[in-house]
Specification:
About 25% of the residues lie in helices and about 30% in strands. A hairpin with a 5-residue loop joins strand 11 and strand 12. It is of the alpha/beta class. The chain has six helices and 15 strands. The protein has a single domain, classed as Metallo-dependent phosphatases (Purple Acid Phosphatase, chain A, domain 2).
Length: about 260
């Protein structure tokens, strides 16, 4: 069972480069399932739009995961009954997991948002949405549901929180892929618990950017008391993704730069 997982699709550049390359990548790696983190895929990097969703579906995406910007665009509420999951510990509308049958076995895919240094989860009207403890939410779900394999997209800031979750859940989880930081880590491995793990898959977005955001605006917000809205950078892009093979248990990371 092979699963392709793409890190945060960030803004128009990330979506464009994903669209241009996904068919080639799927054919080369012969994946059985395609999962994409789409929480930054809207034009301003916040939430998902209907246009972005249609692009993903047209290119064979089986499951879309989200994060702290789940409700960053109102289109989410029209899309949430489809193949999109939101973090189960965000206490708002939407599904927290999906199950897929592949080669006669059940894969459960779920999503969490971290509790450390993430700030408030807000909707498109800047209303705060409550969250619960990620560890407890994951354990409760995986204890009650039946499945052969479980994959978690842990959308979190802190590396230590991500690896701690893997050890906390033990043999209840088979794959944990980290998202959110937009920087691919080089720590992909099989843990002693049997879990395939990577702290962060990275992003799909503009190369010349500050983790996907426009350089000028991001620097302004670090140096000036007068804050500006973050705008997704444009230009040549990069793709960050992993291939997960559950038989045998192997995780490989990939990073492609547009020339």
């Amino acid at each position: 069972m092979k699963i392709l997982f793409f890190g945060d699709i960030n803004g128009p550049s990330g979506l464009r480069y994903f669209e241009q390359n996904i068919i080639r990548i799927k054919n080369e790696l012969k994946a059985d399932l395609l999962i994409v983190n789409a929480e930054n895929s809207g034009p301003d990097g916040r939430g998902i739009t209907k246009e972005a969703y249609e692009t993903f579906v047209e290119h064979g995406v089986d499951c879309l995961t989200m994060g702290n910007w789940t409700y960053g665009h109102p289109d989410f509420f029209e899309l949430m009954d489809y193949n999109i999951i939101k973090p189960i510990n965000i206490l708002g509308p939407g599904k927290g997991y999906l199950k897929f049958t592949i080669q006669g076995e059940t894969l459960l895919v779920t999503n969490l948002v971290g509790n450390l240094y993430m700030g408030d989860v807000k909707d498109y009207n800047k209303q705060v949405i409550a969250t619960s403890n990620a560890f407890e939410a994951a354990n409760e779900l995986l204890t009650k549901e039946k499945y052969d394999y479980a994959l978690i997209d842990f959308h979190a800031e802190v590396t230590g929180e991500k690896i701690a979750l893997a050890y906390y859940l033990g043999d209840k989880v088979d794959v944990i892929v980290g998202t959110h930081t937009h920087v691919q880590t080089a720590d992909e491995r099989l843990l002693s618990t049997g879990c395939l793990f990577i702290s962060d898959v990275g992003m799909c977005g503009a190369q010349e950017s500050i983790i996907g955001a426009g350089i000028e605006g991001a620097i302004n917000n670090l140096t000036s008391p007068l804050k500006k809205p973050k705008i997704s950078a444009t230009g040549k892009a990069l793709l960050s993704y992993v291939l997960i093979d559950l038989k045998p248990r192997v995780i490989r990371r990939f990073l492609e730069y547009e020339k």
